[in-house]
Amino acid sequence: MKKIKIGIVGASGYTGSELVRILLNHPNAVIEYITSESSAGKPFADLHGAFRGLMELPLVKVEEALDMEVDVVFLALPHSVSMNFAPKFLERGRVVIDLSGDYRLDDVALYEKWYQKHVSPEFIEKAAYGLPELFKEDIRKADLIANPGCYPTSAILALAPIIASGNYVESTIIVDSKSGTTGAGIKPGGSTHFPSLYGNFFAYKVDGHRHQPEIHNILSKLNSKPFSVRFTPHLLPIDRGILSTTYVKPSQKIDLNDLRAFFSNFYAGQPFVRLTSSPPQVKNVKGSNFADIFPFYDEENDLIVILSVIDNLVKGAAGQAVHNMNIRFDLDEKAGLNLAPLNP
Ligand SMILES: NC(=O)C1=CN([C@@H]2O[C@H](COP(=O)(O)OP(=O)(O)OC[C@H]3O[C@@H](n4cnc5c(N)ncnc54)[C@H](OP(=O)(O)O)[C@@H]3O)[C@@H](O)[C@H]2O)C=CC1
Ligand SMILES: CC(=O)N[C@@H](CCC(=O)OP(=O)(O)O)C(=O)O
Question: Closest residue (by CA) to atom 7 of ligand 1?
C-alpha cells in the first residue's frame, strides 16, 4: 500500500492534535514528526491526554524538523507564522498544506489590508485554495495548498451553488455564523474563559472580521456578476461546531423543490456534503468531516436562506486538510475520513 510520510507543525494546538487523531487512523499515513516550540521534548500525551498510549512520538522544534524527510507538511500555525515557514519546506521539496490564512487570498493588497505585511507574497499565486468541492483540479496539481478558514468553509459551501448559477441580485449577501470556542485555538482568552461564556452567547468583530474578504474573494471566482458579503461571527458556549445562516436575494423566483434538486446536482459525488431535509444541527457533524446543508426558499420575502453546519476542527480545518492530502497524493478521497459523527 502507498505510504505518505507526514510532518505536523504545531501539533500542540487544537488543529494539530486533530490532525494526529485523523492521521493515526489513516491507512496511508505515517506520521514522522510533530512539533511544538513551547513543549519540545515533552511526550505528546502530556499536552493532549486523550492520546495516552496512542501517539508515542516526542514533540520537536520546527528547526529540527525542517530537514526530516517527509512528503507533506501540515502547518497548523497562526497566520503570520506560517508564511515564514512555508517557503522553507517548499524549497526542500515538501508539499505544504497550510491551515492558516496566509495564502488563502489571491491578492496581496487585500491580505495586507486584513492581516499584516506578507513576507512571502510570491507564493500566493502558487497556492490552491483547498476547498475540494470547488477546486479539486487545482488541489491535485499544487505544492502549496491553503486550507480554508472554518467560517468560510461553512459559508462558501452554503452559497456556492447559487453564486455559480448567477441566480442572485447584485446586492449584499448576508452570512450570520456561530462558532464553538475551539475556533479560537488552545490558548486561554478572556472571551472563552468559562465564566465569561457559560450561559452566554455574543457577536464579536462586528466591525470587520478577516473571513469576510475570504468568503467574498473565493465566491467571486465562481461568477463575475458583482455582489458584496456581510459577515457577522458569534461565539457559542460549546466546544466544536459552526452553524452559518446565509441569505441571498434571487434574481428570479424559484420553487423549493427545484432549489433542493439544484443543490443535490451541484454536490453530486461529493462525499462530505449532505443535504438535510430540516435545519441542520452542529451535533450531527461533531467529530466528522461532513458539511450538512439545508437550502430553503422563503417565498413571502422572496429570499433564499441556506443553513450549513460543520465541525470547525474537522471539515473546518484538519479533516479538510487530510482530504486535500488525499487528493494531492491520488489516494482514496475518503481515506482516514470515514468518521461517523459522535451520537449523541
Ligand atoms: N481552531 C480552528 O477551528 C481553526 C483554526 N484554523 C487555523 O489553523 C491554525 C492553527 O489553529 P489552532 O490549532 O486553533 O491554533 P492553536 O493556538 O491551538 O495552536 C497553534 C500552534 O502553533 C504553534 N506556534 C505558535 N506560534 C509559533 C511560532 N512562532 N513558531 C512555531 N510554532 C508556533 C503553537 O506551538 P507552541 O506549542 O510552541 O505554542 C501551537 O502548536 C491557525 O492559523 C488558525 O487560524 C483554521 C480553521 C479552523
Ligand atoms: C471562534 C473563533 O475565535 N474563531 C476564529 C476563527 C478561526 C479560523 O478558522 O480562522 P483562521 O484560520 O482564518 O484564523 C476567529 O474568529 O478568529
Answer: 100
Q: Where are the domains positioned within the chain?
A: 4-148+315-328, 151-311
Claim: this prediction has a pTM higher than 0.95: yes
User: Using a 6 Å cutoff on CB, does residue 187 contact ligand 1?
Assistant: yes
Q: How far is the CA of 170 from the centre of ligand 1 (A)?
A: 37
From the CB of 182, is ligand 1 less than 6 Å away? yes
Matching CATH number, 4-148+315-328, of 3.40.50.1110, 3.40.225.10, 3.30.420.10, 3.40.50.720 = 3.40.50.720
- Active-site residue among 95, 150, 304, 322? 150
ipTM, 2 dp: 0.98
- DSSP collapsed to 3 states, the chain: CCCEEEEEECCCCHHHHHHHHHHCCCCCEEEEEEECCCCCCCEHHHHCHHHCCCCCCEEECHHHHCCCCCCEEEECCCCCCHHHHHHHHHHCCCEEEECCCCCCCCCHHHHHHHCCCCCCHHHHHHCEECCHHHHHHHHHHCCEEECCCHHHHHHHHHHHHHHHHCCCCCCEEEEEEEECHHHHCCCCCCCCCHHHHCCCCEECCCCCCCHHHHHHHHHHHHCCCCCEEEEEEEECCCCCCEEEEEEECCCCCCCHHHHHHHHHHHCCCCCCEEECCCCCCHHHHCCCCCEEEEEEEECCCCEEEEEEEECCCHHHHHHHHHHHHHHHCCCCCCCCCCCCCCCC
Q: Is 270 a catalytic residue?
A: no
Domain 151-311, what fold?
A: Dihydrodipicolinate Reductase; domain 2 (3.30.360)
CB of 77 closer than 6 angstroms to any ligand 1 atom: yes
What tens-digit pLDDT sequence spans the chain (344 residues)?
A: 999 999 999 999 999 999 999 999 999 999 999 999 999 999 999 999 999 999 999 999 999 999 999 999 999 999 999 999 999 999 999 999 999 999 999 999 999 999 999 999 999 999 999 999 999 999 999 999 999 999 999 999 999 999 999 999 999 999 999 999 999 999 999 999 999 999 999 999 999 999 999 999 999 999 999 999 999 999 999 999 999 999 999 999 999 999 999 999 999 999 999 999 999 999 999 999 999 999 999 999 999 999 999 999 999 999 999 999 999 999 999 999 999 999 99
